[in-house]
Automatic annotation (TrEMBL):
Record-stated family: Belongs to the peroxiredoxin family. Prx5 subfamily.
Taxonomic source organism: Riccia fluitans
The protein, known as: Glutaredoxin-dependent peroxiredoxin
CDD domains the record matches: PRX5_like
Family matches, as PANTHER family: PEROXIREDOXIN, PEROXIREDOXIN-2F, MITOCHONDRIAL
Record flagged with keyword Oxidoreductase: yes
Amino acid sequence: MLRTAINKSRLSAVRVIWGQGRRFQAFSSAAKELDLDGSISLQKARSWDEGVQSKFSTTPLKEIFKDKKVVIFGLPGAFTGVCTKAHVPSYVNNADKLKAKGVDKIICVSVNDPYVMNGWAEKLDAKDELEFYGDFDGSFHKSLDLTVDLGFALMGERSTRWSAFVEDGKIKVLNVENTPADFKVSDAETLLKKI
């Protein structure tokens, strides 16, 4: 009984801290379009051996977004609670509806390495519906002002929770949550209504 009370107390403290960590960050991105000709790239989810074989190649943003309609969503981290139980499943379950609206790709991105993203995608059995990318150094998220310091949770600087509809590199819709624990506006259902 004492252990249960202590665990509930810790959970409450984590929720308060999680919210506070987010409150001090600027979360609305001023970016209206992605820099398709710049040096920022993402790393397609893959195994370590595939990474070695590709000489650790990255994927330029132009290759991902040029002349395409893309739904992309970012989240704090692979294998974390809301990300695993709600955020990714939201897009897996609505993939057909998004593609029926003309979406060419549905992408999940996080400030993780591509090997962790690959393991997570395989565990979620979501690689048929979604493409997974790592943003190993956070440069993509920093360019959009979509990072948050989650050092208190031993995660460092990470992606905030967000979703977007991008057409030929132009950001048409951007939904950003108030805290990393929130899941109110970055879900697939909300994005479907705005496309």
